[in-house]
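Side project, low priority. Logging it here so it doesn't get lost.
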Amino acid sequence: MNAFAGLGFDVWTMDHENYGRSSRTSGNSDIASGVEDLIAATELVIRETGWKRMHFMGESSGALRAAAFAMVRPERVDRLVLNAFTYTGRNSPTLAKRAEQLDYFRTHNRRLRDREMIRSIFTRDHPGTSDPAVAEALADAELVFGDQVPTGTYLDMTANLPVVDPLKVQAPVMIVRGEHDGIASEEDLLDFFRQLPNPDRQFVVLPGAAHALVFGHNRHQLWHTVHAFLTMPPRRDRQ
């Protein structure tokens, strides 16, 4: 947020249902409910700013939520950035491992996200792509709200993919994948990319990065890439 606010963008973010400062309910905060959250959030932004269309950037399950939102509210989406996105989950070692707990995700609405789990996000794909101190800072910030988070996105990502139809995403899209991402395989993402109907699209692989792009050593490359996409000059047609 600070990086793009510093570049002059009016930046908004939110905690989805059962995360962070948001309300606690009996739901599991799956991708579909995340879309409903974004519908409510964008109504607030429209009311406060007067802007009817916005850029969206999401990472991992946040990218799934943003892309799913773009399918049902295309009139509110200007440009869409999908970091660490996944389409079908094909050839994903992380999702294959996670699927071993599928019965638990089906029968429980909460899962453990303690300090050790947060640390593992920074090391599971390729150790050395992130600063361990960032993992500790993230854990310090998150654990204020407890060590349990919803299972809905894990259930969707292990049992219900694909949750986004590329043919229904009308906005300009940039897909960003880290070189060492264990969830988003390049072939899976390219399959999604090829089906996007808008010719204004980009596919970017960031070297030396893993799944947690915004927390990696090379996040400055992510900011550069995204900024270029969001400030793309308008298309010119011959007269």
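Brief comment: The chain has one domain: 2-230.
Revisit when time allows.
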